[in-house]
Amino acid sequence: MALDRITLSSFRNHAGTRLDGTARFNLLVGENGAGKTNVLEALSLFAPGRGLRRAALAEMAGQGGAGNFAVSAALDAGDGGDPVMLGTGTTPERPGRRLVQVNGAEASAIGLGEWLAISWLTPAMDRLFTDSTSARRRYLDRLAVALDPGHARHASRYEAALRERNRLLGEDFEPDPAWFDSIEAQMALAGAALAQGRAALVTKLSARLDELPPQPFARPTLTYRPGGPVEEQALRQELARQRRRDRAAGRTLTGPHRDELEVVMAGKEVPAAQCSTGEQKAMLIAITLAHAELAAGGRPGLLLLDEVAAHLDPVRRAALFVRLREGGSQVWLTGTERAPFAEIEGQAAIWRVDGGSVERL
């Protein structure tokens, strides 16, 4: 058990939804547009970042309300103690700032990663392998945060320093080299930690994937391609050496913001971007399950699967449920009907979602 007593207030089309009595498997059924994915998005806000849709806070607030929203849940940390109360949302006074509370005390969004390891798979992620390199870097970082909450701080600090260096590069005058020295020292410190976190993630994922059979889910081979030196001192020296080049380009051309994740289908040795949509989906599922199994150790795990089972044949669907049973995460699934989930119905808490209202079945 991970989360229970979940409430959504003025969150998208959920004016006031409460889900009690959760289980290891939790199933949300309903027509398209009923609000199933909105529940998963609300749960994804208990991870650092912008949630599974990467939406603006204003988009999450329910229409017709005061422009704010709230999501809360009781977290069973598995230690036999009292549940930890988690809450996040916005206020009418500051709708553009997300607030986070842990047991009623204000906390940071980045700090949420210390309580829960959250993974998700949504239909929008089907284009990950053909999307931009920045989308794959965000994906890497989200997976890395679930294993190491401190990774989020490294990413935030690196992005802040990168923006500052790029601002200096764009100045009409020649900035004082000491300014560059200071900013590049910050970039190198955070950037080395960021790159090494990504590399460690890919190493762990690859080892777990290598243990799995090639079927029924296509097995991917992952390769991390750094966009520059991954050691702090070497990165700092390279940034200093490339100032003239970067000023001509108007942006920083070396560093973790240029990293790439390469994915190849094992056995066929074909880049994932060139594989069929079915093969790409199977590889995404393989990565998601392997990551959830890695993340489940140490902290409570949450796995959010949006419309996954309906697109699998019976063999792969059965294999999916076997893997989910073997994993340690609390699982949330959505579907338009219950039939694809017949194998786990006896183990699942089931709700029907309709127009933003939820009924326990």
TrEMBL record:
Residues reported to bind ATP: G30, E31, N32, G33, A34, G35, K36, T37
PANTHER family with a match to the protein in the record: DNA REPLICATION AND REPAIR PROTEIN RECF
Cited InterPro entries: DNA-binding_RecF, DNA-binding_RecF_CS, P-loop_NTPase, RecF/RecN/SMC_N, RecF_2
Function field: The RecF protein is involved in DNA metabolism; it is required for DNA replication and normal SOS inducibility. RecF binds preferentially to single-stranded, linear DNA. It also seems to bind ATP.
Keyword Transcription: no
Main localization, broad class: cytoplasm
Domain RecF/RecN/SMC N-terminal: 3-344
Protein name: DNA replication and repair protein RecF
Gene3D superfamilies for the chain: P-loop containing nucleotide triphosphate hydrolases, RecF/RecN/SMC, N-terminal domain
GO molecular function terms listed in the Swiss-Prot or TrEMBL record: ATP binding; single-stranded DNA binding
Cellular compartments annotated: Cytoplasm
Protein family: Belongs to the RecF family.
Alphabetical keyword list: ATP-binding, Cytoplasm, DNA damage, DNA repair, DNA replication, DNA-binding, Nucleotide-binding, SOS response
A Pfam family per the record: SMC_N
GO biological process, any: DNA synthesis involved in DNA repair
One Gene Ontology term, aspect cellular component: cytoplasm
